[in-house]
Design a protein that fits this description.
Blueprint: H1 9-20, H2 25-42, H3 81-91, H4 111-124, E1 130-139, E2 147-155, E3 163-172, E4 175-178, H5 180-191
Helix pairs in contact: 1-2, 4-5
């Protein structure tokens, strides 16, 4: 047993094996061989080399699948009048701004003032009454379900030039609204100083 001192845990294993087979020399030699093999494999690394790494095949990393925007609706586009009716009401100075709130996406009561200012600016600038023409209607990519139309505004005043601008509309129940982004651009027009009426 003294020969195994200093080997720590290996000595304990050897001591047990030796006691179990103390009378059988071949068994003792086998125990020593097993213990030596265990001891040598547990004491590796003395030569400064790391044991060879086990080759392991890792599964491919988990990646988020690419998301594609949903395809545009396959429904037919609404009639152009669905959009020109919204704009006609928005531009009418005889309709109070509070009655126009449902025509603008995410409108709040505070927007009534801007809606009144917009229609007053058109009237005071000599552009009212306006007529609207919607063409080149397409489904919007984002958000899906919205429609973008090229809107031409035509004044009853023959000296005023037609104005064409792309506008986006949002579906709301059985009707349409001007998107907030487009409405904000129109509100900025209403905030501009009143132009001299064309003659």
């Amino acid at each position: 047993m003294a020969a195994f001192e200093g080997l720590g845990p290996v000595a304990a294993v050897l001591g047990r094996l030796t006691r179990l087979v103390h009378r059988s020399r071949s068994a003792a030699l086998g125990a020593v061989a097993i213990a030596a093999a265990l001891g040598l494999s547990g004491c590796g690394g003395d030569d400064g080399k790391a044991p060879p790494a086990a080759t392991q095949t890792l599964p491919p990393p988990i990646t988020k699948p690419e998301t594609q925007p949903p395809p545009p609706p396959t429904d037919p586009l609404p009639a152009p009048a669905a959009f020109t009716d919204v704009l006609t009401k928005l531009a009418d100075p005889n309709v109070p701004g509070a009655d126009k709130l449902a025509l603008v996406e995410h409108a709040t009561p505070d927007d009534a003032v801007a809606l009144d200012r917009f229609s007053r600016a058109l009237r005071d600038g000599g552009y009212a009454p306006l007529t609207f023409e919607a063409r080149d209607l397409v489904w919007a990519d984002n958000p899906p379900g919205n429609v973008i139309a090229s809107i031409t505004m035509k004044s009853a005043n023959p000296a005023a030039q037609d104005f064409t601008f792309p506008m986006e509309f949002n579906p709301m129940r059985d009707s349409w609204q001007l998107t907030r982004r487009t409405a904000d651009l129109l509100f900025q027009m209403g905030n501009a100083p009143t132009a001299t009426p064309p003659s």
